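Q: Joint fold for the lines below.
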Amino acid sequence: MALRPMPTEAFETRFAALLQQHRERLLGFLRRLCGAKADAEDVLQETLAKVWRLRASFDPDGNAEGWLLQAAFRTFCDQRARRRRAVPGSATEPDALPAPSAPCPVELRDEVVRTLAALPAIERELVLGFHRDGLSLRELAERHALPVNTVKSHLHRARARLAAGPEER
Amino acid sequence: MNRNEFEVRLHACLDARTDPFDDAELVAWLDAHPEQLEGFARLTGGLHGLRADEIAVAPSAGPTNASADASAGGTTVAPADVSQPPRGSSRPWRWLVLRAGLAGVAAACLVVACWPDSTDVPPSERTIARSRPVAAPAAGRILSATVEPLAPTLGLATRVRATEVLVARPDTRIEVFTQWSVR
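A: Joint structure:
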């Protein structure tokens, strides 16, 4: 088996610059996943330390952004699993998303508000009713005189808008 | 699992209020498709934002807005058909500046209107009223308007509604009107 050569100083300089270049984007990505800035910064630090250790396996001709996002996602999943193990019983609680440990950042909330404002009224009402107010699909269907499957379709479209980037909305 | 199957499974998971991260297949698919990670993160962040219990909808008529309410201190979401996107609630000082500005403009108008004009004829016992045209505004120009927040949000509202708007017509003239006491 051929051994991978040790990274040269020039490679390490370029790799450090690459991490610096993608740092803000990774932080933004992690803030959305974590919900809280402090948690996101923790995961980011762990991610950067991890990819630095793995720098020899980095392919400069490959998709650097995808590689870094994947590393950040894996680190987030690992940290989340560790936290769940540390809190007995939390793994069995029904919870659609991991609860953020701090209030939603203002920028994130503003982004959500902008997306909601662009939604058709019925989709906005349904997504708020379901995800903010905790109403069931059946309750929403009765409230808006719609079949449950139609409520689901509206919800799916509204979520797709939340997932879309600004250029896709 | 292709992308459509992933989305169906993800929405089913969210509809059932279960955590997508507890579904190993969903996580594995995302891990294998890093190009989908940012969209998934935006959705996750958006749902965090919705669950932050700080999002309120501006009250409006119609059956589709049945659950509209406005929470104090929250962020007001205006309907989609308004011309400007809502701004963030992170700048409540803008309201103070706006209110101070409006008060300043009103005070300046009052001072100008009441300022004694040296060209006026001095009042006499026979003068009980006098008017003098001072401007002919262009038709359609808004002469005055009262604004109020769309919802009671302790100064954090991001939308205002104009009420009692006075618009100039083609024949509108602005006059300074003076009434002197006969005593």
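Q: Anything notable?
A: Residues 58-74, 79-90 of chain B have pLDDT under 50 and may be disordered. Residues 79-183 of chain B form one domain.
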